[in-house]
Design goal:
Layout: E1 8-10, E2 16-18, E3 26-31, E4 34-39, E5 46-51, E6 57-58, E7 64-66, E8 70-81, E9 87-96, E10 108-115, E11 118-125, E12 134-139, E13 142-143, E14 150-151, E15 159-169, E16 175-185, E17 200-207, E18 211-218, E19 225-230, E20 237-239, E21 243-249, E22 255-263, E23 269-277, E24 284-285, E25 297-300, E26 307-312, E27 318-323, E28 329-335, E29 338-342, E30 349-356, E31 361-368
Parallel strand pairs: 8-16, 15-23
Antiparallel strand pairs: 1-3, 2-9, 3-4, 4-7, 5-6, 5-8, 7-24, 8-9, 10-11, 11-14, 12-13, 12-15, 15-16, 17-18, 18-21, 19-20, 19-22, 22-23, 25-26, 26-29, 27-28, 27-30, 30-31
């Protein structure tokens, strides 16, 4: 059997929307749906936030991210100097093709247009050899609607960073293939850390077997008014704080809508809605030499021969899982503080170590060599 070793490297050379002395920039290398990002920004006292365009995110400096499936994703790196408050962003469309032996080759694009005085979104299914499966479609504020236009209603006049998706399932309801696309409507990443922005960060802060808690934080720190809208739980959940958290169960619809409206100190106002993706798998982890806000987790030596040490700054019992590149758990045990790990039965390769405590999730890349 032929071994696939395709590696695509893209280096990005231009920068958009630079303020002050901050410059955001990244390059990336893709191996099917797993993409390693190299942060090349020039930002003193840097705070980084990645929006991967699939409804997930990271605060790591140089994350490795596994996208959910084949698709076209607008990846944005936001950066802010926490002292001078200068900010910048850089974004690039990343095309991901997941390797599969299935004859179904999923592909989806979107179309935003006005019809009869209303704004509409249409998902266009360009998939090949998928007719033997049942197709379900998601788009922006709608879930599982047919591939015909839907009117966005009140959403049409505001900014939206959406996700469009087609899912193919067999006669038993088992998910076989998917395709995603980041869809933008009236949205610009230039709305970030300024006084007239309603853009917001989001991150998973805890998880268990039932679901995960996601924290939403306004980028705009100087607004005089905040109004959050978390949808999908019956009545809209609201808050007037600059941050809000919500628990998302895994057994519910996994594309959700969150909106924020702000009023700036100069009287300006802004509203932005985003789709987030809630799925029970390891998505993003740090590189071997990563330094970030997650530096309370150390894995060493790395690379290693299967015997290594995990060290955290917490003496509480925490759950450790080691995932292979396909997201399968290959080792699981409880740790606390400094723990020796014997993974001698694992083969050579790259793995992801995930540590879950009461209020945090930390991930690290693990490399085993013989």
């Amino acid at each position: 059997m032929r071994k696939l070793n395709t590696l695509i490297v893209v280096v990005l050379l231009n920068v958009t929307n630079v303020f002050g002395q901050c410059t955001s920039l990244f390059s990336f290398a893709a191996y099917f749906e797993t993409v390693t990002f190299s942060n090349q920004s020039s930002v003193p006292n840097a705070h980084y936030f990645w929006n991967f365009g699939d409804g997930t995110s990271s605060y790591l400096q140089n994350p490795t991210h596994r996208f959910p499936e084949t698709g076209d994703y607008l990846v944005t790196l936001f950066a802010e100097d926490t002292i001078s408050n200068c900010s910048s962003y850089y974004e690039y469309w990343v095309n991901v093709t997941k390797y599969s032996t299935d004859s179904c080759q999923p592909s989806v694009i979107d179309s935003l247009f006005a019809s009869g005085g209303a704004g509409c979104l249409k998902i266009i299914d360009n998939s090949i050899n998928c007719n033997h499966y049942h197709a379900l479609y998601d788009g922006g504020p709608a879930y599982n609607y047919p591939p015909t236009p839907i009117c966005l209603g009140d959403f049409w006049n505001i900014a939206f960073r959406m996700i469009c998706r087609v899912q193919y399932r067999d006669t038993t309801g088992t998910l076989k293939r998917e395709a995603y696309k980041t869809s933008l409507h009236n949205y610009s990443s230039s709305h970030n850390y300024g006084d007239c922005s309603a853009n917001f960060e989001f991150s998973v802060v805890s998880k268990n077997t039932m679901g995960q808690t996601i924290l939403f934080k306004a980028m705009n720190k100087t607004a005089t008014y905040y109004q959050w809208a978390i949808m999908g739980f019956g009545s809209t959940i609201s808050s007037n704080n600059d941050t809000i958290s919500q628990f998302y169960p895994y057994n519910e619809v996994d594309i959700w809508i969150v909106g924020l409206m702000t009023k700036g100190s100069t009287g300006c106002s802004d509203t932005i809605y985003q789709n987030i993706l809630n799925r029970d798998s390891i998505l993003t982890y740090a590189g071997i030499k990563e330094y970030s806000s997650y530096n309370s987790l150390n894995v060493y030596p790395n690379p290693n021969n299967g015997n290594f040490v995990i060290e955290t700054n917490s003496m509480e019992k925490q759950s450790m899982q080691v995932y292979d590149v396909n997201g399968k758990i290959v080792l699981s045990q409880t740790i606390n503080g400094k723990t020796n790990i014997d993974a001698g039965n694992l083969s050579e390769g790259v793995y992801n170590v995930s540590i879950t405590g009461n209020n945090s999730v930390m991930n690290r890349k693990l490399v085993i060599v013989r």
